[in-house]
Specification:
Layout (H helix, E strand, L loop, with lengths): L1 H13 L2 H18 L6 H8 L8 H26 L8 H12 L3 H35 L3 H18 L4 H15 L2 E2 L6 E2 L13 H20 L17 H23 L6 H14 L12 H16 L1 H6 L6 H12 L8 H4 L1 H32 L4 H20 L2 H19 L5 H23 L9 E3 L6 E3 L1 H26 L21
Antiparallel strand pairs: 1-2, 3-4
Helix pairs in contact: 1-16, 2-3, 2-4, 2-16, 3-4, 3-9, 3-14, 4-5, 4-6, 4-14, 4-16, 5-6, 5-12, 6-10, 6-12, 6-16, 7-8, 7-19, 7-20, 8-19, 9-17, 9-18, 10-11, 10-12, 11-12, 14-19, 17-18
Length: 525
């Protein structure tokens, strides 16, 4: 009941005229930018982050929530009409969605994607309302050793579990940690990695890093690989769903939601796995298997619901632990830190109005998304005809404006260019971007928690495994920290021992079939 009462208080905050206007602006602008080719939700939020400057934190986060959901809707429109997904989790939506569009059913594909996003986002947000406070109570009981271990597990997950190459993932994480360490050391007062440049004494603002790596780096990469002229856009018409389409879509919506939310709530879960699982599940359960590969509406409804439910799930670790599980959450955490708000277990206690106003605004943004964007779908489709040179020139302009607005320093523009080139190079060599951003945001925090754990143990490394009990003065191991370290060891060692285990397993012996002589018309001699 406490959660429901807090949620009602959140609606009182989010439903004020100014916050409703901010949510409307966020949804509209987020959709308009997210629908552009090659621009995913993370890049949309990073690019539009500067428009929240000057707002108080609650209003800024409400606008960012609208931008997030608007960018996700725009990404699905782009995937369906152009077969150009802005992020990996939209790839599955493009498989059947673009085929539906090519067969003259673009309106139905857009409608099931939009309504599925609404259903999944609403259910997912309700689950966040009841899950985040429980996770927060658990997180508050954690000490420095436990928090250090959990952050270390998040580092391992985003580098070793996600992506095709562990080495590239760890390389991205190391780059992010190095960027996060730039500035004055809080304990010794010594300058680190500043190379005698005074402007680096306070470190690099995470907003500049996010805009440079995501917006500028992605824009340079996509612009270098797309043709100059605008793409041919499939006619949309007015999105609608008939009775038969609705009957075929509502079960995939619910199944996709059930698959997507847990993966989003798990640190480093991501939306790629549940969207693919949803597509495979719908392909097996469908009563119309002949339509898969030709434009099946279930292949759009399920994955799109899984994608949005996963996005809602990311708010659980983000609000309760301060851990981003995807690139979009990392950018939103960067926005929080830019206001001087420390994400983590105490966020729900210290910033109650902000957190519950944000959660309430997710319901409002979801509703605005359906009410506004279904009628405006033909208008968004026209934005896809913008010539590429104008499109990416505009992106570079807004990215530069956003970086300059952080501190009003021309030096930040130089940093932006350097970070943009780093982002471009990472995409060129297949190095994932998410570990870098996670390293920048969480690096100073894991350093702080690690130092506290070691100080409590008088500098002994065993401080990372537990702490000293106040009553007895005896050292005791932390069950949570030890369990997390065991999980980390399994994650790191399993790929090494699995081939050995597989080699020891007996392989089934299959006798080759006896080959019969073939007759060619004459006597076989």
């Amino acid at each position: 009941m406490d959660s429901l009462q807090l949620l009602l208080d959140g609606f009182a905050t989010a439903a004020t005229p100014i916050n409703l206007v901010l949510a409307l602006i966020g949804v509209t602008v987020g959709t308009a930018v997210g629908v552009l080719p090659g621009i995913g939700p993370a890049m949309t939020v990073a690019l539009l982050l500067p428009i929240t400057y000057g707002l108080e934190p609650t209003g800024a986060m409400i606008m960012l929530a609208g931008i997030l959901y608007g960018g996700m809707y725009g990404g699905s429109t782009n995937s369906i009409l152009l077969n150009t997904p802005g992020e990996s989790s939209s790839v599955v939506t493009a498989i059947e969605g673009n085929l539906m569009a090519k067969s003259g059913r673009a309106a139905q594909a857009l409608a099931t994607a939009a309504i599925g996003s609404f259903v999944a986002g609403t259910i997912g947000t309700l689950l966040v309302v009841f899950t985040a406070p429980v996770m927060t109570k658990f997180a508050i009981s954690m000490g420095a050793p436990e928090y250090f271990a959990v952050i270390l597990l998040a580092f391992i997950c985003v580098t070793a579990v996600l992506g095709a190459s562990r080495i590239r993932g760890f390389a991205a994480l190391m780059i992010g940690l190095a960027i996060g360490l730039i500035g004055i050391d809080s304990t010794s007062g010594q300058s680190r990695l500043s190379f005698g440049i005074p402007q680096l004494g306070d470190g690099i603002d995470v907003v500049v890093v996010a805009v440079g790596i995501f917006a500028l780096g992605e824009a340079l990469w996509v612009a270098a690989h797309l043709r100059r002229k605008a793409a041919e856009v499939i006619p949309v018409g007015q999105p609608f769903m008939g009775k038969r389409d609705f009957q075929r879509s509502w079960k995939p919506w619910l199944r996709g939601t059930a698959l997507g939310f847990p993966f989003g709530a798990v640190p480093a879960g991501g939306a790629e796995i549940p969207t693919f699982l949803s597509y495979i599940l719908e392909k097996r359960l469908t009563k119309h298997p002949e339509e898969f590969g030709r434009g099946a509406i279930e292949g759009v409804a399920g994955p799109e619901a899984a994608n949005n439910a996963s996005a809602a799930g990311t708010f659980v670790p983000m609000l309760s632990l301060g851990l981003p599980t995807n690139a979009t959450a990392a950018v939103m955490l960067a926005a929080l830190t830019s206001y001087g708000i420390q994400p983590g277990p105490l966020l729900l206690q210290r910033e109650t109005a902000l957190v519950w106003g944000l959660l309430a605004s997710l319901f409002i943004a979801n509703t605005l998304l359906v009410v506004l964007n279904l009628p405006l779908a033909p208008l968004w489709a026209k934005l896809l005809r913008i010539p590429r040179p104008y499109l990416y020139a505009g992106i570079l302009f807004f990215a530069a404006m956003g970086a300059y607005a952080v501190n009003g320093s021309p030096f930040d523009l130089i940093l932006l260019l350097g970070l943009g080139l780093i982002g471009f190079g990472m995409r060129r060599f297949g190095i994932p971007v998410l570990p870098l951003i996670v390293g920048v945001i969480m690096g100073p925090l894991i350093e702080l928690q690690g130092r506290r754990a070691l100080q409590l143990a008088s500098g002994s490394p065993r401080g990372l495994l537990g702490g000293v009990e106040v009553a007895t003065g005896q050292f005791s191991l932390s069950l949570l920290a030890c369990t997390v370290y065991v999980i980390i060891a399994i994650v790191l060692v399993w790929p090494l021992i699995y081939p050995l285990i597989k080699r020891q397993l007996p392989t089934p012996h299959i006798d080759a079939p006896t080959r019969q002589p073939t007759k060619t018309g004459g006597d076989n001699t």
